[in-house]
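Collaborator request, handled under Task 6.
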Amino acid sequence: MTTTSHGSKARKRRSLSPSWSRATCLLRQLKSPPWKDVPAGHVSGGRAHGRIEKRILKVVTVTAGLAYPHAAQAIQVTCRTRRPGTRRWRTETGYAITSLPAAHARPDQLAAWIRGHRKIGNQLHWVRDVTFGEDASTARTGTGPHVLAALRNLVIRILRLSGRASIARALRRTARDPT
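Structure tokens returned to the collaborator:
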């Protein structure tokens, strides 16, 4: 970490790692196509988790010049959500790339894969954050955080393989009766 001085304030600045700068460059490149001119490849929506959702997926074929040489398609996913009874929409835009050509990955397939990927990640991270309180963990040095995360993942996997639907309920039951 390098420190630079500006007037009386000292400001710490992290040196950028090559992977971070590559990802920033890729994001900048993915935002650059005129997405407004691209027709929607797949539109879906509905009600989920107490909100109204509308997802728009746009796909463009990558010709050249992207930070990843094997990328065949660039994807923009715009998700608009609002609570029932309100008029205010919240918009989130995400970008992705795939090496699959358009003939092997249609927009509806890409939308399903992206939703499935997010579902898996959200299920695991939500359980780790809420049920195990991972964000409140005080283990911050050495290999401690990695070891604890591996143990949490192991417990979650064992409970899921044993057919437990609710990890929290299974942990409470185990705490009362360890046999």
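The cover message to the collaborator said: "Residues 1-17 have pLDDT under 50 and may be disordered. The first helix runs from residue 18 to 31. Please let us know whether this matches your experimental observations."
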